[in-house]
Amino acid sequence: MKKAFVFMVLVLSVTLLAACNNGSQNDGKIKITYSNWNLGAADSETPNMERLMIQAFEEAHPEIDVVIVERPKVPGTTNDVSWSEFLAARASTESLPDVFMADDIPYYVVNDWAYNITDVAMADPEFLNVSAGIRGAATYSEKVMALPNAVFYAGYVVNKTLYDQRGQDWPTTATTFEQFIAMTKAAANHASTTNTGIVGLEGIEHIMHWYPAQLNSSFGWFTMNQNGFNLDSTEFAATVDFYRSLQTDTSFVLEALQFEAAKEDSTIDIEAIFQGGSAGAAFNNGVVLAKWFYSWDFGWMQSNINSGNYTWDLDFIGTPVVNGNKRVPIVADFFTIASNTKHPEEAYKLAKWMGFGKDGYLKRIELSKTIEGISQVNFAPLQNDVDLLDAYFELYPSFNGLRAIVEAGNVVVEPPKFLPGYIQARYQGTYDAENKMGDIIDKLRFGQVLYADVRVNLNNRANAIYNEAKAAFDAAIQQR
User: What CATH number does residue 79 fall under?
Assistant: First the structure.
């Protein structure tokens, strides 16, 4: 009842706002509406990069006026309404923002919220200069239904100084996983009782997701390919075995040590092992050899390096090489052009400026250097362009390993925003009467079930959930 009331209030507010927007501005400019969840408060005294970028876009395109559609608050609170409720209310009055941030592209396609921008995008050399793995994520049946606006790379940040101090070579972007394990295991110390321990490896959960794509180049994230999930494959069997070998090795894998320390009869005292008294403080104390991060974390790390808080050298290596393959995981953000837009080409220009476009990205870099209170740009350029890469790595000189990864363009994309049914098939869908899909994967991770016992049913359930969602999506995409 409460959600229905909120939705009715939203629809009324949207109707009134749409009427105002359509009737009050008649200065000859093309009006493009825009909404995102990263705009901050309109009346904030702290400068917001996205609002500054919009102002700069209007200066570069004086024929276009960008109207920001603010997300309303839940009635009686200071909380924003959910993104899905906000969009649904706008869609109900055919007043979706011309450009809006996407969190569920298949849902937008099925509900006819997304504009097929293929003709405009495919005629743009800059769009075609984005790596195929990124721009293809939201392209279905050769139809471009969303545009990439940011990419964040995932993998291991390594403490080169610490490896050296421990008498080991440090890993690089060319290091194999076998070498990575050998170096890290030899340099780690999980046996200290006097806070002199050295964390070896932290961050192994996503191995279950990206490792199969290293073993088989036809696989994407979590064994996906054009036929669906392949969770009954020899590659996923090898992945489970490899993951379990790490999850049970307390000598250098932090998660393994934490798992054992959490047992009721454990004698392990993590606070006595690592400097600072906890594993969480270990990275800031420079006693973690390799830790999983996303590139959105580079800003605060580089700031600590620049200020002298970190006196050690860091680099980003992505994921190690497996069987000669290196495909680095990424999280991609997307803009959707609304199906109700009257100005698709101008909406495309705005989305490009705010995301993958060269002019917009260089302006973003300029703003981050010149406006006090603006954080450094937190995503690498989407185009493999020397000017863009030079500008970005002026801000992040400590993470040049990423440059080789961007230039190579070999990625595997985390799919929640663009793959029909993925969240249900991986996490929320039903596996059996007692388990959701995420539950059974966790039991595999921690050795509570054997892979051989669930192999067939796991794959069947994942594909049944996926195929149901895909059928609805396929029917919709043919109409777009």
Answer: 3.40.190.10
Tokens of 39: 């705009």
Boundaries of domain holding 101 = 2-150+333-403
Point out which residues pair with 139 in neighbouring strands: 144
Average pLDDT over residues 179-184: 98
In a domain, 43, yes or no: yes
- How would you write the chain as a 3-class SS string? CHHHHHHHHHHHHHHHHHHHHHHHCCCCCEEEEEECCCCCCCCCCCCCHHHHHHHHHHHHCCCEEEEECCCCECCCCCCECCHHHHHHHHHHCCCCCCEEEECCHHHHHHCCCECCCHHHHHCCHHHHCECHHHHCCCEECCEECCEEEEEEEEEEEEEHHHHHHCCCCCCCCCCEHHHHHHHHHHHCECCCCCCCEEEEEECCCCHHHHHHHHHCCCCCHHHCECCECCCCCHHHHHHHHHHHHHHCCCCCEHHHHHHHHCCCCCCCCHHHCECCCCHHHHCCCCCEEEEEEEHHHHHHHHHHHHHCCCCCCEEEEECCEECCECCEEEEEEEEEEECCCCCHHHHHHHHHHHCCCHHHHHHHHHHHHHCCCCCCCCCCCCECCHHHHHHHHHHCCCCCHHHHHHHHCCEEECCCCCCCCHHHHHHHCECCCCCEHHHHHHHHHCCCCCHHHHHHHHHHHHHHHHHHHHHHHHHHHCCC
Contacts with 112 (C-beta within 8 Å, 6 or more apart), sequence order: 339, 476, 479, 480
Q: φ and ψ at 474, to 5 degrees?
A: -60, -40
Residues in the chain: 480
104: tokens are 């569920």
Phi-psi region of 286 (alpha: psi -120 to 50; beta: other; left: phi over 0): left
Q: Does any domain span residue 97?
A: yes
pLDDT band at 26 (very low <50, low <70, confident <90, very high): low
Strand partners, 34: 68, 99
Count of the separate structural domains present in the chain? 1
* Per-residue pLDDT at 275: 85
- Nearest CA to 31 out of 56, 70, 62, 67 is that of 67
In a domain, 42, yes or no: yes
Tell me if 458 is assigned to some domain: no
Question: Distance between CA atoms of 282 and 148, rounded to whole angstroms?
Answer: 35
Q: In this predicted model, what pLDDT tens digit does every residue of 289-343 receive, in sequence order?
A: 999 999 999 999 999 999 999 999 999 999 999 999 999 999 999 999 999 999 9
- Say if residues 294 and 402 touch (Cβ distance below 8 Å): no
- State pTM to two decimals: 0.92
How far apart CA 320 and CA 438 sit, in angstroms, is: 26
CA 460 remoteness from chain centre: 27
> In this predicted structure, what is the pLDDT of residue 447?
96
pLDDT at 3: 54
